[in-house]
Design brief:
Radius of gyration: 27 Å
Number of helices: 9
Helix content: 25-40%
Oligomer: single chain
Shape: elongated
Number of domains: 3
Strand content: 5-15%
Structural class: alpha+beta
Order of helices and strands: HHHEEEEEEHHHHHH
Distance between the termini: 43 Å
Length: about 260
C-alpha cells in the first residue's frame, strides 16, 4: 500500500457489509466482466480478456447519466496522481545458499542454478507463476514455480560441465533422467564410440532444441554415421526446427559429489 501512496482501512472481522461499495463492485465485476464465462488456456489470456472487456465497458452509459463511462473517466483522469515510476513486484523474496547439487531450496522445493554459483548466496524472487534467481543485481535463471512439497527441477545445461568430467554418469545422473530424453536418443547413444561422445549430444540439445537434434540423429543414422560429429554435421547442413539462442557453458572445478544419487 505504501508503494502506491494509499492507506488501508480495514472493516471489522465478519462485517463485509461495512464496505458495501467494495462488495457491490465485486458483484458488478462478476456479472459484467465474467459473463459469458471466459474460456482460456493461460492466465495471460485471462488477464488480456479482462482488459478488453474493461475497455469495451467504457462505451456503456449508466442509466440516469448524461455521459458514457469512458467520458466520465476522461474527466476524472486529470485528478488522479501519477503511478510510481517503478512497478511494485508482487513477490516473496529470500536469500538462500546454493548447495553442492547446484540447486537452491525455496518453500520446500528445489530449483537449479548454474554450477558456478555453488556455495554462493543468491536472491530468490518468487512470484505466482515463476521463481527468479538473482546474483549481485543480475538475474541468472528463472523457473516455473512449483507448488507441491519437496519437488525438484533440473536444467540439463547446468550440469554438462560436470558430465564432461564424469562421462559415465550420463547414463544415470538424475538431471539427465529428469529431461526425459526419448528412446531414439538413447538408441543412438548406445552405438557411439565412447561415453564422451554421449555427453556431447546434450550440448547439441541445448544449442538446437529437441526437434532439431532428433532430426539430426535420424539423418546421421540413415547414412551409418554413429558419431557426435555426424550429428553435428547434419545439423549444420540441414534446416530443421527453429533453433534457440546457443547456451554457453563455463568450466568449473566443482566435483560431481553424489550428483548421480541426488
Amino acid at each position: 500500500m505504501v508503494h502506491y501512496a494509499t492507506q488501508a482501512k480495514f472493516c471489522n472481522p465478519g462485517k463485509a457489509n461495512e464496505k458495501g461499495l467494495v462488495e457491490g463492485l465485486v458483484r458488478w465485476f462478476r456479472q459484467n466482466i465474467l459473463v459469458p464465462v471466459p474460456r482460456v488456456d493461460t492466465y495471460e489470456e485471462l488477464n488480456q480478456l479482462f482488459v478488453e472487456r474493461g475497455l469495451a465497458y467504457q462505451a456503456h452509459k449508466i442509466r440516469g447519466r448524461s455521459k458514457t463511462v469512458g467520458e466520465y473517466f476522461a474527466i476524472e483522469r486529470d485528478k488522479l496522481i501519477p503511478l510510481p515510476l517503478q512497478r511494485m513486484e508482487p513477490i516473496r523474496q529470500a536469500i538462500v545458499r546454493c548447495n553442492t547439487f547446484s540447486t537452491i531450496c525455496f518453500d520446500t522445493n528445489r530449483y537449479p542454478v548454474p554450477i558456478e554459483y555453488v556455495g554462493k548466496e543468491v536472491t530468490v524472487k518468487a512470484g505466482v507463476f515463476g521463481v527468479f534467481i538473482w546474483y549481485r543485481g543480475k538475474q541468472i535463471v528463472s523457473h516455473p514455480r512449483l507448488y507441491e512439497r519437496n519437488g525438484v527441477q533440473y536444467k540439463l545445461e547446468h550440469y554438462l560441465p560436470l558430465l564432461e568430467k564424469k562421462p559415465r554418469a550420463a547414463w544415470n545422473a538424475q538431471p539427465v533422467k529428469a529431461v526425459g530424453l526419448p528412446s531414439a536418443f538413447w538408441d543412438f547413444a548406445k552405438k557411439l564410440g565412447s561415453d564422451y561422445e554421449v555427453v556431447k549430444l546434450p550440448k547439441l540439445l541445448a544449442d538446437h532444441g529437441m526437434p532439431a537434434l532428433l532430426a539430426g540423429i535420424e539423418a546421421a543414422a540413415s547414412v551409418g554415421s554413429y558419431a557426435y560429429e555426424g550429428v553435428r554435421t547434419k545439423l549444420e547442413q540441414g534446416h530443421y526446427a527453429t533453433m534457440p539462442s546457443p547456451i554457453r557453458f563455463k568450466s568449473s572445478r566443482l566435483t560431481f559429489r553424489r550428483m548421480i544419487a541426488c
